[in-house]
Predict the structure of NAD(P)-dependent oxidoreductase.
Amino acid sequence: MKIFVAGASGVIGRLLLPQLVQAGHEVVGMTRKEEQKEAIEQTGAKAVLADVFNREQMVDILMEIKPDVVIHQLTSLSQGSSAENARIRIEGTRNLVDAAKQAKVQKMIAQSISWAYEPGTTPATEETALDIYAPMPRNTTINGVVALEEAVKEIPAQVILRYGTLYGPATWYAKNGDTAQKIMNQEMNATDGVSSFVHVEDAANAALLALDWPIGTYNIVDDEPAKGVDWLPVYARALGASAPDIQSGGSPWERGASNDKVKNECGWVLEYPTWRTGFAKSLR
Ligand SMILES: NC(=O)c1ccc[n+]([C@@H]2O[C@H](COP(=O)([O-])OP(=O)(O)OC[C@H]3O[C@@H](n4cnc5c(N)ncnc54)[C@H](OP(=O)(O)O)[C@@H]3O)[C@@H](O)[C@H]2O)c1
């Protein structure tokens, strides 16, 4: 198939591109940056320079390429601004979807998140409502997620991947990542809030496999949603950092997510089924 990857140079895109090429697909990867082209082309994909906020450029590119599938792995997280990330979800996705519709793209696979669910005490399933009444600043993130998912559903076939918190190479949890640095500096307490993690290799592999998955929305998380008081000491140990301070409580929406649906309906098998062993493996 001919596959267009928006976000080809991102933390997931970089791992996904070679997998798509090896699976025999003709792949075009998008970046805004001349200096990223070489890395994209080394995977065997073709690189195209474009900015998703340039609507006409997106239409021209997709009309020319006419891909069978668009994989949307765009985020704007390098600057650490949730407003910028919401903008790419809202305006960027709008442009990408409109361009894809004009180019008669039949399938879109898109990156979303698994921590946008309403408050609760058990891991969220895909049936759980999104947290649309969340107060600011969380509201910014939720609005972005809702807009992204709604827009993607305008494509005839769509798979929405609600990823857990990524860990592994080049993520915030890598040795030189932001979270690792905070933990090394004892700036993060272990709370009762529950998170779901996913190794970035499993995240990329899910996007490849989703080419054959039925239309739907899936939590792409590992098997073990965990409280901060459980996972953070394990992660700190793997990093060689001191044990974190404990702080009781957590946000009511910090409930983690269940991967039952994607395992049962798509037969997804994880390379890293739990952070419990995955953190140490990924930091070796
Ligand atoms: N679920 C999660 O926990 C999750 C998910 C994603 C990322 N993250 C974290 O966020 C950090 C940064 O992520 P990242 O390295 O993937 O970088 P990023 O800055 O979020 O960029 C991701 C991708 O989007 C592209 N992009 C951004 N704005 C664009 C625009 N206006 N037009 C076209 N393309 C655009 C980038 O391309 P160019 O910059 O090459 O143009 C890149 O390919 C990582 O360390 C990771 O841990 C976490």
Notes: Residues 82-102 form the longest helix (21 residues). The chain has a mean pLDDT of 97. Residues 7-11, 13, 30-33, 36, 51-53, 74-78, 88, 113, 163, 165-166, 170-172, 177 surround NAP (CB under 6 Å).
